[in-house]
């Protein structure tokens, strides 16, 4: 018996990373593709959830980070920097710790979920909060990497996409081909670009007979790819995708156009409702931003789009435990029921009879 080796060792021949790069890995990837009875029923199709919260630090970022940190280490870097809405920084800090590199993180002040902040700090990152948004942090991270001896590991570093495209490989390997449609949340647009790269590579190699239609979903208050204009003041409670000027804008548009796909926005209320429904129906707890793809699917079904007979994959990008504060908002009475040590009292409170 052997365990999953992590995305570099599982797919090394298909990744563009320098030959002989030693893998810095926490055995990321190999995440579950969970069949959704709920969404399959609603679509009268076949819907699979790619559960990226299964990764070591709880989000899809680990796929790209194993690649970026391995290459940074290979190149002799001693420190690494990233801008982040939380998950990239959590992932970078963990892999930097494993590699013995010094992690430096720039995050927008007050807009990071507590779980993600805890991860960065516990893994030993220097966390700097910036009075600005993610886009400001990214500009600063680029400036630091330009002027100082720190390697940039945001997805503007192409090695990140090399690692992240392995999610598309895993989906094709499991389903036996690419699905008809792929839906996912979009923020800085690295992930949709990486999936498109991965699907394209599998098709070119004859490992898949087709490529999916790509559908990206953004929060209404941070939807530059939908409107075609940057958002100077992006705002959404799905803080992971609170981004106004995505770095991979061009690549993401190419993924949309070449696949015959689309970008759409969903409201915060739709995102939070989808998060709860997914947890209740399918037993999959994701963070708010991660539910944008599911919210988008529900919106399309309500609008009359038909997916009957089709195969869909929806990526849910990060774990629900990252941000329990947002998840519990609006559940006052459910978490406030307190009784004495008394079976009858508990039964009464629960409405049992
Ligand atoms: N979902 C989650 C949970 C994320 O953390 C992110 C991005 C996305 C979706 C969007 O992916 O940027 O590739 O389009 N988080 C980045 C971060 C920005 O800093 O953690 P994308």
TrEMBL record:
It is an enzyme of class 4 (lyase). SUPFAM superfamilies: Tryptophan synthase beta subunit-like PLP-dependent enzymes (SSF53686). InterPro entries: Ser/Thr_Dehydratase, Ser/Thr_deHydtase_PyrdxlP-BS, Thr_synthase-like, Thr_Synthase_bac/arc, TrpB-like_PALP, TrpB-like_PALP_sf. CDD domains: Thr-synth_1. It holds the Pfam family PALP. Belongs to the threonine synthase family. Catalyzes the gamma-elimination of phosphate from L-phosphohomoserine and the beta-addition of water to produce L-threonine. This is Threonine synthase. It comes from Nocardioides lianchengensis.
């Amino acid at each position: 018996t052997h365990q999953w080796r992590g995305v570099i060792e599982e797919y090394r021949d298909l990744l563009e990373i320098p030959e002989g790069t030693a893998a810095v890995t926490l055995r990321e990837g190999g995440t579950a593709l969970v069949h959704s009875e709920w969404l399959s029923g609603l679509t009268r199709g076949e819907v699979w959830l790619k559960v990226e919260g299964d990764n070591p630090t709880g989000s899809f970022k680990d796929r790209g980070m194993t690649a970026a940190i391995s290459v940074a280490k290979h190149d002799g870097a001693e420190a690494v920097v990233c801008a982040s809405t939380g998950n990239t920084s959590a992932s970078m800090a963990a892999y930097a710790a494993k590699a013995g590199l010094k992690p430096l993180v720039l995050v927008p002040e007050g807009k990071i979920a507590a779980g993600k902040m805890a991860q960065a700090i516990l893994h030993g990152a220097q966390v700097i909060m910036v009075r600005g948004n993610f886009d400001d942090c990214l500009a600063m991270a680029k400036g630091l990497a330009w002027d100082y001896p720190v390697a940039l590991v945001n997805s503007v570093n192409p090695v990140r996409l090399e690692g992240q495209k392995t999610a598309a490989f895993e989906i094709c390997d499991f389903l036996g081909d690419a699905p008809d449609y792929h839906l996912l949340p979009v923020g800085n647009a690295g992930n949709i670009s990486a999936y498109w790269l991965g699907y394209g590579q599998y098709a070119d190699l004859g490992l898949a007979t087709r490529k999916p239609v790509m559908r990206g979903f953004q929060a209404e208050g941070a939807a530059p790819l939908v409107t075609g204009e940057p958002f100077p003041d992006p705002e959404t409670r799905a803080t992971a995708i609170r981004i106004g000027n995505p770095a991979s804008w061009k690549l993401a548009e190419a993924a949309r156009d070449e696949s015959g796909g689309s970008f759409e926005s969903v409201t915060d209320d739709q995102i939070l409702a989808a998060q709860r429904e997914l947890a209740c129906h399918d037993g999959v707890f994701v963070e708010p931003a991660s539910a944008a793809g599911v919210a988008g699917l529900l919106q399309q079904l309500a609008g009359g789009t038909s997916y009957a007979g089709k195969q869909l994959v929806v990526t849910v990008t990060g774990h629900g435990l990252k941000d329990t504060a947002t998840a519990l908002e609006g559940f006052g009475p459910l978490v406030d029921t307190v009784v004495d040590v008394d079976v009858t009292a508990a039964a009464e409170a629960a409405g049992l009879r």
